[in-house]
Design a protein that fits this description.
About 55% of the residues lie in helices and about 10% in strands. By secondary structure, it is of the alpha/beta class. The termini are far apart. The protein is built from 19 helices and ten strands.
Length: about 525
Amino acid sequence: MSVEEKETILFVDDEESIIDIAHTYFTGRGYRVLCASNGKEAVELLTSRHVDCCFTDINMPEMDGLELAEHIRKWDNTIPVIVMTGYPSLDNTIQTLKNGVVDFLVKPVNLQQMELCIQRVLRERRLFIKNVILSKEVEGKAQLEKLNAELIYKVEELNILNRIMTDFSALRESSDIFKQLVDLAVEIVDADGSCFYLLSDASNHPLPIAAAGEQWLPAHMQHTPSEASDAALISAPDKICDLIKEVVQDDRPLIIAANNGCQRLPQHFLSCMLVPLKIRTRVLGVLMAGIYRGERRFDEKDLYYLDFMSKKASTGIENLALYENIYNNLLSTLYAFVKAIEARDPYTKQHSSRVTLLASTLAKAVGCSDEEREILNVSGLLHDIGKIGVRDAILLKPGRLDAEEYRIIQQHPVIGCEIMGQLGLWTREKQIVRHHHERFDGKGYPDRLAGQQIPLLARILSVADVYDAIASDRAYRERMPEAKILEIMYGGAGTQFDPDIIEVFRKLYESGELVRVLADDPHETSNAANG
């Protein structure tokens, strides 16, 4: 296909920087590019412009990416939709499958990776459309049945590939990827067993680190090997090691469809496949699948699926490593800002850490998920980062603030939200930072939200923040007496605080749990735990 004939791609994201980069890159590659800042704008474009493929973020104002994907599926189910997100979750992944999304990419997304994804899905779309057109032209029942069978096969193949892509995109740990890899191998290629062998520079023998199919595990990984398979298992490591070395040396997948007395395989293997898993140009390990009973044997389609799994696992590992590196670097930088703020005011030293501990304890008692507690952990540690924009004369003033000074200090949640927003990550976290000074009765700041309008995690953080503030020494006053602290906290139910969260706070306080949490904190320096 010439440059002029390339398809039209629609990019939907509320982050202008991503839209600008994608537009510049893919226009330069010859694609026609349309851009929208949210799902609602994208829907309007679809009514007036032809679109061949759509990339969309999940979290956007007015209409999010999942709603857009559902609209496109109903509008034209031949348009492939690829979802991009900076904070992958299992719930989002499951929802994208329901909406017919064909791929799920984790930000930051490599432009070359995006282009490869586009090439693949457009190739599959052309095939799908071609088959649909052919189906209208074919005459005769036999021809129609044959075409229908081919379409069913393609749909099944796409479902399998979509299942593989989605399963790996949802994982958060490298160890989970290896376990998912062997489990999927057994399930999708109908293997009796599968094992992933990690290559090590320190050893000539590959190390089996994940396996599925109890009767085929390597001898040192199997809990109760049967007597019938003991002899085969004893001879397996050397022969398997030779096969792995062959795959690594040739740098390509290997299939031995049928044993037929093959001396290269352990005796109990009837059919076998091995594929390398590469990180960039280096082979990290080898995935092996085997059949040792029945009439079924592996074929080229099975090898294709196994190789595809290995490539998606490799991409998943690379994305995790890149994401974790960027995420940790950004967190370290922002935490350094927080430390700088706390260093300016010795009375608030470790305030953010204590607030985060208290908020996490409250969130667990309220019934928040592990993901929500992770979100609260980031937003708790960074909730006062906006104070970096408040001058010392106001931040450290020993007396009461005047009206103008109070107006300035009220800007710190907005400043903090804007600082985090510049990074293009943590959409939910920055909203919690922005709203942690809202009041349940709507008299807080900066947006005067009330009741359920305030995000749940912001309501939790507000309780923890106020408690630590009044239970600590400050530049303008000493720590309040215990009775006064409880009077403020309990008396604020329904006005300053969510009454349900205050009730949870009361139970935790009266049980001594909050005191124990702060006492166990190695960085705890406040007097709050002494009350």
